[in-house]
Amino acid sequence: MKNNEDGISQAEMTGEDWKAQKLVSAELRKLRELSGMTRKELAEKMGPPYTEELVAQYEDGGVVPMEIWPVFAMVRALRGNMNDLDPERIISKRCFTNGYSDLTDESRDFVDRIIGTLVKGQNGTA
To answer: Residue 30: which CATH number?
Structure first.
Protein backbone atom coordinates (compact mmCIF):
# COMPACT_ATOMS: atom_id res chain seq x y z
CA MET A 1 0.00 0.00 0.00
CA LYS A 2 1.35 3.40 -1.02
CA ASN A 3 2.36 5.90 1.66
CA ASN A 4 2.06 9.63 1.16
CA GLU A 5 4.90 12.10 1.82
CA ASP A 6 4.21 11.95 5.55
CA GLY A 7 4.54 8.17 5.53
CA ILE A 8 0.82 7.59 6.15
CA SER A 9 -0.81 4.75 4.26
CA GLN A 10 -4.47 4.43 3.36
CA ALA A 11 -4.78 1.58 5.88
CA GLU A 12 -3.50 3.83 8.68
CA MET A 13 -6.08 6.56 8.09
CA THR A 14 -8.68 7.00 10.82
CA GLY A 15 -12.34 7.85 10.33
CA GLU A 16 -11.49 11.46 11.16
CA ASP A 17 -8.76 11.43 8.49
CA TRP A 18 -11.28 10.24 5.89
CA LYS A 19 -13.83 12.90 6.87
CA ALA A 20 -11.20 15.64 6.83
CA GLN A 21 -9.99 14.56 3.41
CA LYS A 22 -13.54 14.57 2.05
CA LEU A 23 -14.05 18.13 3.35
CA VAL A 24 -10.77 19.28 1.80
CA SER A 25 -11.63 17.69 -1.56
CA ALA A 26 -14.98 19.45 -1.66
CA GLU A 27 -13.40 22.76 -0.67
CA LEU A 28 -10.76 22.46 -3.42
CA ARG A 29 -13.53 22.00 -5.96
CA LYS A 30 -15.45 24.95 -4.53
CA LEU A 31 -12.38 27.21 -4.66
CA ARG A 32 -11.78 26.28 -8.29
CA GLU A 33 -15.41 26.79 -9.27
CA LEU A 34 -15.49 30.18 -7.53
CA SER A 35 -12.39 31.18 -9.49
CA GLY A 36 -14.20 30.43 -12.74
CA MET A 37 -11.44 28.07 -13.89
CA THR A 38 -11.97 24.68 -15.43
CA ARG A 39 -9.95 21.73 -14.19
CA LYS A 40 -7.87 21.93 -17.35
CA GLU A 41 -7.17 25.64 -16.84
CA LEU A 42 -6.15 25.03 -13.23
CA ALA A 43 -3.78 22.22 -14.24
CA GLU A 44 -2.24 24.45 -16.91
CA LYS A 45 -1.76 27.25 -14.38
CA MET A 46 -0.17 24.80 -11.93
CA GLY A 47 2.18 23.57 -14.65
CA PRO A 48 3.93 20.21 -15.07
CA PRO A 49 3.70 17.60 -13.65
CA TYR A 50 0.10 18.49 -12.74
CA THR A 51 -2.70 17.42 -15.06
CA GLU A 52 -6.44 17.86 -15.42
CA GLU A 53 -6.85 14.23 -14.33
CA LEU A 54 -4.89 14.84 -11.12
CA VAL A 55 -6.99 17.93 -10.31
CA ALA A 56 -10.13 15.82 -10.83
CA GLN A 57 -8.81 13.06 -8.56
CA TYR A 58 -8.07 15.52 -5.76
CA GLU A 59 -11.42 17.27 -6.10
CA ASP A 60 -13.31 13.98 -6.19
CA GLY A 61 -11.42 12.47 -3.24
CA GLY A 62 -9.74 9.87 -5.45
CA VAL A 63 -6.25 10.33 -4.00
CA VAL A 64 -6.02 8.64 -0.62
CA PRO A 65 -4.21 9.80 1.38
CA MET A 66 -3.72 13.24 -0.19
CA GLU A 67 -0.22 14.58 -0.56
CA ILE A 68 0.42 18.15 0.54
CA TRP A 69 2.34 19.45 -2.50
CA PRO A 70 -0.42 19.01 -5.09
CA VAL A 71 -2.92 20.54 -2.65
CA PHE A 72 -0.53 23.44 -2.04
CA ALA A 73 -0.03 23.91 -5.80
CA MET A 74 -3.79 23.98 -6.38
CA VAL A 75 -4.43 26.50 -3.61
CA ARG A 76 -1.54 28.69 -4.75
CA ALA A 77 -2.75 28.67 -8.37
CA LEU A 78 -6.22 29.63 -7.12
CA ARG A 79 -4.74 32.41 -4.97
CA GLY A 80 -6.26 30.80 -1.92
CA ASN A 81 -4.96 30.23 1.58
CA MET A 82 -3.95 26.84 2.98
CA ASN A 83 -5.54 27.81 6.31
CA ASP A 84 -8.90 27.78 4.53
CA LEU A 85 -8.51 24.03 4.04
CA ASP A 86 -8.40 23.27 7.75
CA PRO A 87 -11.38 20.92 8.29
CA GLU A 88 -12.47 22.78 11.43
CA ARG A 89 -12.51 26.08 9.52
CA ILE A 90 -14.45 24.49 6.67
CA ILE A 91 -17.13 23.23 9.08
CA SER A 92 -17.30 26.60 10.85
CA LYS A 93 -17.54 28.50 7.57
CA ARG A 94 -20.33 26.25 6.33
CA CYS A 95 -22.20 26.74 9.58
CA PHE A 96 -22.00 30.53 9.38
CA THR A 97 -22.87 30.58 5.69
CA ASN A 98 -25.62 27.97 5.57
CA GLY A 99 -26.64 27.49 9.18
CA TYR A 100 -26.93 23.95 10.44
CA SER A 101 -28.88 22.64 7.46
CA ASP A 102 -26.00 21.02 5.56
CA LEU A 103 -24.06 19.73 8.58
CA THR A 104 -24.10 16.17 9.83
CA ASP A 105 -25.14 15.49 13.42
CA GLU A 106 -21.48 14.99 14.31
CA SER A 107 -20.54 18.33 12.74
CA ARG A 108 -23.39 20.08 14.57
CA ASP A 109 -22.10 18.68 17.87
CA PHE A 110 -18.62 19.92 17.01
CA VAL A 111 -19.91 23.44 16.26
CA ASP A 112 -21.97 23.46 19.44
CA ARG A 113 -18.86 22.55 21.46
CA ILE A 114 -16.89 25.40 19.87
CA ILE A 115 -19.67 27.91 20.52
CA GLY A 116 -20.03 26.66 24.10
CA THR A 117 -16.30 27.07 24.70
CA LEU A 118 -16.33 30.58 23.26
CA VAL A 119 -19.32 31.63 25.38
CA LYS A 120 -17.70 30.25 28.53
CA GLY A 121 -14.50 32.15 27.68
CA GLN A 122 -16.38 35.43 27.20
CA ASN A 123 -18.17 35.00 30.50
CA GLY A 124 -14.90 34.31 32.30
CA THR A 125 -15.96 30.79 33.20
CA ALA A 126 -13.52 28.92 31.00
So the answer is: 1.10.260.40
